[in-house]
User: Fold this.
Amino acid sequence: MKAGTTIRRVGEGNIDDLLRLIEALARFERLAPPEAEAKQRLRAHALAERPAFKAFVAYLDGKPIGYITYYFTYSTFLAKPTLFLEDIFVLEEGRRKGVGRALFRFCAEEAVERGCGRMEWSVLTWNEGAIRFYESMGGHRLDWYLYRLDENGMRQALDDEASVGRSIS
Assistant:
């Protein structure tokens, strides 16, 4: 990691740095950034007593330059937790300075300390720079399709005539 780089857990004092970096990632990915209500939820979920995800901001010479967010899932085949890296992003001016590598290694260290059997993430197919980075860190592409239901899709699945009532014993 380049001298002058620090990684800090997100808290009240730097949550706005995280939100600005998330907006920068949205611009980079050509997506709509979180709206005001989503930002409020992000703030609440990140700062909760039991946060929905873990978030850290990287600073280069005191300036917020990148971030990571991750959470834990579980592998029934390995019978171990999995660290899922939701976001890793470094502003253009911080790239090729070891910041991304430091953030990625931070996650790998957390995964090892938590006894995870693996670490997983997704990458946009057009993001060649990220693909090269992940492969340089030892990552390999899986031959799986990623599927998603948005809120409307979830409701549609529930409205399906074939759906049955939920029964929990």
About this structure: The chain has a mean pLDDT of 93.
